[in-house]
Amino acid sequence: MEPLNGYVVVDLSTGIAGAYCTKLLADGGARVIKVEPPQGDPLRRWSASGAAIEPGDDAALFKFLSCSKHSVVVDAAADGDIEFVDALLASADSVVWSRGSTVAEHPAFCPDRIHDRHPHLTVTAITPFGLHGPWAARPATEFTLQAWSGGIVGLGRGSADRAPVYVGGQVGEYVAGAYASAVTLAFRRCGGRLIDLSMLETQILSLTYYPVTYFEMLGRPWRDARNLTVPGIARAKDGLVDIGCGTAQQWFDLCAMIGHEEWIDEHSPLSITEQANEKADELYTWLREHTVEEIRELASAFRIPNAPVANGANIEHLDHFRFRGSFIDNPRGGFRQPAPPYRMAPAQLRPPQPPPRLGEQTTLYRQLPLVARAAADHNSDSLPFKGLRVLDMTTFWAGPYCTHLLAMLGADVIHVESTRRPDGTRLIAGIPVTDEQWWEKSPIFSALNTNKKGLTLDLQRPRGRDLLRRFIQSCDVIVENFTPRVLDQLGVDFAAIQAMRPGTILVRMPGFGLDGPWRDNPAFAYVIEAAAGLSWLTGYPDRNPYEPYTIGDPNASIHALNALLLALEHRRRTGQGVLVEAAMVDAALNVAAEQVIEYSAYGALLQRTGNRGPAAAPQNLYRTADIDEFGRADCWVAVAVATDEQWEALRDALGRPSWAMDPKLCAVAGRREQHDLIDERLAAWCADRAADEIVRVLWDAGVPVGKVMQPHRQAELAQLVFRGFFEEVRHPVNPAVKHSTVPIRFCCGPGEFHRRSAPLLGQHNHELLSELGLTEAEIAELEAEGIIGRAPTLSDSGTAG
User: Fold this and answer.
1) Which residues make Cβ contacts (< 8 Å) with residue 123, sequence separation at least 6?
2) Is residue 673 assigned to a domain?
3) Distance of CA 534 to the CA centre of its chain
4) Range of the domain at 621
5) What's 689's domain CATH number?
6) Where is 216: in which H helix or E strand?
7) For 621-652, what is each residue's pLDDT tens digit?
8) Residue 590 falls within a domain, yes or no?
9) pLDDT tens track for 558-601
10) Which pTM value belongs to this model?
11) Which one, of 17, 1, 21, lies nearest residue 9 by Cα?
């Protein structure tokens, strides 16, 4: 029996975010009832490649997103249909809502009304900016939200000779859907809640790397210019390959790999990025002289992150994905689609069932006796994970962010490091090791670890491993993101954990999975993005793809949290522990699903198109008259016209110029045909105006528009201020600075999400070891032996060992 068997969800959403949310719930075993207007959900006719959908058939993407769901048709204007939907809601456990259909936008079904009328329901509302606030009613698209989030500028993606570029595909929609699924499950046993999810905030958390905290703590932005990653995605003799140097050691290893040991300089005043850029020409020459297979075989031997650059045509044939069965047949379309984004045992996901035809279950539900659920009691101050104890054996971004969400929503999280190998985010702030307590001054570590307790254990020594086993016996959940072999070496695999504490859940977050040819390859976000196809769609068609560089980790985090929540439900029902495998690449394959679906269903290979996209025309970035804070003429606005009505609004806002009055432009096909002309005219109009004026004129007219924000300026956005998305956190070493919270607001929520600062290295050693029953003398002995500690052990080179 699947974990969510018997759980009923009414889907009142339109678009990918809601559809992906309810897909994840259906995969977990929930009964999802999709309520559609007579003409059907627009996704039934949507194809990113523009493929023609045969009459009576549904688009391939809709079939992927709708497996295992039911469909009922409701006419909001028909007698009795509103009452029918109300009865469905009364008999359900949760409802997922977004604007876009005549049913969802009926006054009876706004989220506040649903929550008031059905207090037992978990009501999850997905909107661009949130249900309330100064921007609540403003139009937006995936593209303009990326601009507002700072994600288009990101970590300096691209090159300065062209406009910045958005992350291709519709990744923001999928990530918002994954968040919506997770928060729906998180609050399902807290009584009825109205959960108000902001897609702007999910994009900030997914496409940027805590830029506000970084800027306020260190007084400088992470990046202030666009630069190509070197080597990054490069041309090999027979195709594209992604090679990354995320650490100094990886740069040294790359130098050795290509036969230039003389480039290695551990005392260079230049960063590894600057050193790589100095040698770029020679690096690229070497790569062009070797095949992708040769490069990857060498890089893997040297433990350098690497991946092929996948796309819709080649991805399902890559050896690792064939071995793991990463792609399956759609049960109604026959095309290929990603398998679910996580695996678990003994809990099981539901095998995909055929997606419903329009209204296929309407008669069934109209005839069923729909029994109203009773309102559940709940503690208005309760957080969903209160009482859950988590051992956090993770590092860098993907793992710590998963456990950070648990900590912000009430869990007791113990973050394990060692003095020999602290969390990697402590080491990436550029703080000189000559600074006092330099390891406590990383804004990234601070942003990812509030509310957690800090424990150091040297797991390379027997006493450290013995203490780890004792901590495991006190925890409900273990989360780790080592490469697969590490846990086996520590002797704490799933079987060993079950022997110590039956019922414990082990969440493993390897980059490429627990098996397959790539299982032991190091996995940083950029190689995950390349391997999954996310990079392929990012950039300009006449250049190599750009690495998104941000989406791989947080996307893995939110999918791992979904898997953990299913595992917790399985344990609640059966008492069994669960092994969860939440591979980063499997999560990435799912948010890049359109590529393999469009190719296998229609033979269409999706391509990167700069800042244009399939969901709007025109869609692009246009330079404004502003000068940025760095003294450059490098300020941009994003405009995306998603409907014919928005085109008319844009035309009117521009003063109805003669070029815009061509009747052919009133339809999307005509606008696509004349996109170059529209871009030229819009660019000229924007060039003489400040971004604030452009936004005011176009937004007031109802046109989706956004300023391309520098990420470290996110906290200045009025909507985020209204929602309290940033909270100031005090710290014993660092100044009090703003930290992002969670992308939801909900009735009866906490006043603050950050209850205490990120822990100092080993800050809670004494407290936690005392809980195990160790005496003062024993704890002092552990410290004297270096099993625990409060400062990193430095190697001879002066860097953390």
Assistant:
1) 94, 95, 97, 111, 114, 115, 192, 193, 194, 195
2) yes
3) 12
4) 617-703
5) 3.30.1540.10
6) helix 211-218
7) 999 999 999 999 999 999 999 999 999 999 99
8) no
9) 999 999 999 999 999 999 999 999 999 999 999 999 999 999 99
10) 0.97
11) 21
